[in-house]
Amino acid sequence: MLVVDDEELIRWALRAALEGAGHRVVCAADGAEALARFEEGVDAVLLDYRLPDVDGLTLLARMRELDPVVPVTLLTAFSSVERAVDAMRLGAFDFLAKPFDLDHVVAVTAKALETTSLRREVRAMRARQLSSIDAIVGESPAIVALKRQLAKFARSASATILITGETGTGKDLAARAVHAASARADGPFQNITCSALPESLLESELFGHEKGAFTDARTQKRGLLELADRGTVFLDEIGELALPLQAKLLRFLEERTFRRVGGLTEVRPDVRVVAATHRDLARMVEEGTFREDLFYRLGVLSVHIPPLRERAGDVPLLARAFVAHFARDLGANVVGIGDAALDALARHGWPGNVRELRNVIERAVLLAEHPVIEPSDLPPLGGALAASPPPSHGEPATRVALPPEGLSLVAVEEDLVRQALERARGNRTRAARLLGMNRDQIRYRIEKFGLHDVGRSPG
Ligand SMILES: Nc1ncnc2c1ncn2[C@@H]1O[C@H](COP(=O)(O)OP(=O)(O)OP(=O)(O)O)[C@@H](O)[C@H]1O
Ligand SMILES: [Mg+2]
């Protein structure tokens, strides 16, 4: 319990009553101290409305932001309805007017603490659901195989795993799923992106350092490999790891022990390493930028996630799952996605893979003008089009890049005519203008593709 009040007598009385009821109590006399104690982790807060350095409502809002699970009960010397309403609106758990009855405070506190443990359970359950293997959506053979493989990998507790795949294919998701499905599920999951830090910082981030190891090392610091003890370390973008760190990582993977930077003693944490990359490590080995021995060490259990364009059958499943997720998350009035919109999604090439699809759906759910998402609710797609580079000097402004795998010109043509008709709400003259055509030219294409009703509202 955290008790925040600037009056010593009140702190004393509350502490005595709450400790008498079997709770552990920490006190703070002002806002700054209260936040410091709060960040160390508490289960519930009793917060005085008026403090010397900050007002209670501001502090309440800040605490709600830091950890919405922790119930905050406000105490005030002046009971006023508006104030109570303000407090409740900001998410206060309860509101107690001074002078209060200590038995009542103890009863409210017991209820608050019960809420905390319930909320924590729900949060942990949601986190488990979100990161389980079942959270990986897809029925394509590649994804079914991936899920089976991840489940198998999870059964060994310490074997190193390598996940490869283009950006946005779900490498992060897969790494978390293995962790959640393994015996380490209750341990920490630490992740770091190897390209995010310069080499020396990355080294001390991973392996830690001793006090005085270098100029800025004022205290000893434990690295991620130690912090992840009994859990999993996820090394993202392993292909960007500098050669000296590759050597140090290899030694750790082989001997399961390392020294902190500037240290002499061996540290022996119990962790599983999962690495991921969008790079072709075999090619990097040939080029001499990635150690061959580390490559083989990492590759013992390896899995490749194919790009979304190679499992287009999963697009509707993913789209529906994201619609449901965002409709709930954003409180939007969207209940589903229509076939025409799904068709439009299926024709796109998805260079950004599942992440791109997720973003497209999030935007569509936010901006949708229909309860069932229609093509006009989607941003302009069309594989080739979305990936087109900005026009450079001398090229026509509408230049479209041909994707490496090629495309069907007829399908693109049909899609563009359809989009134009939709945007023009069925008005052929306006649709034709959008495509730089005359009415005859567009009528010919409407016949050819059977687009007579596109863009027209039924009835
Ligand atoms: N099969 C899937 N089912 C459900 N959600 C998915 C799936 N694949 C990816 N996602 C979601 O798509 C987004 C991108 O996935 P993720 O971050 O795992 O990709 P990544 O491969 O790590 O990308 P990068 O290489 O850019 O780091 C995430 O929000 C993830 O939850
Ligand atoms: Mg990632």
Descriptive account of the structure:
- By secondary structure, this protein is of the alpha/beta class.
- The chain has 4 domains: 2-127, Rossmann fold, CATH 3.40.50.2300; 136-306, Rossmann fold; 310-396, Helicase, Ruva Protein, domain 3, CATH 1.10.8; 408-459, Homeodomain-like (Arc Repressor Mutant, subunit A).
- Helices cover 46% and strands 11% of the residues.
- It is built from 18 helices and 14 strands.
- It has helices spanning 8-20, 31-39, 56-66, 81-89, 102-130, 141-155, 171-181, 199-207, 224-227, 243-255, 281-287, 292-298, 314-329, 339-347, 353-367, 409-423, 428-434, 439-449; strands at residues 2-4, 26-28, 45-48, 72-76, 94-97, 161-164, 189-193, 232-236, 258-259, 266-267, 272-277, 301-304, 336-337, 372-373.
- The strands form 4 sheets. A 5-stranded parallel sheet has the order 2-1-3-4-5, sandwiched between helices. A 5-stranded parallel sheet has the order 7-8-11-6-12. The protein has a two-stranded antiparallel sheet with strand order 9-10.
- Helix 1 (8-20) links the parallel strand 1 (2-4) and strand 2 (26-28).
- Helix 17 packs across helix 18 (439-449).
- It is flat.
- The chain starts with a strand and ends in a 10-residue tail after the last helix.
- Mean pLDDT is 88; it is low at 383-397.
- Bound molecules: adenosine-5'-triphosphate (ATP) and magnesium ion.
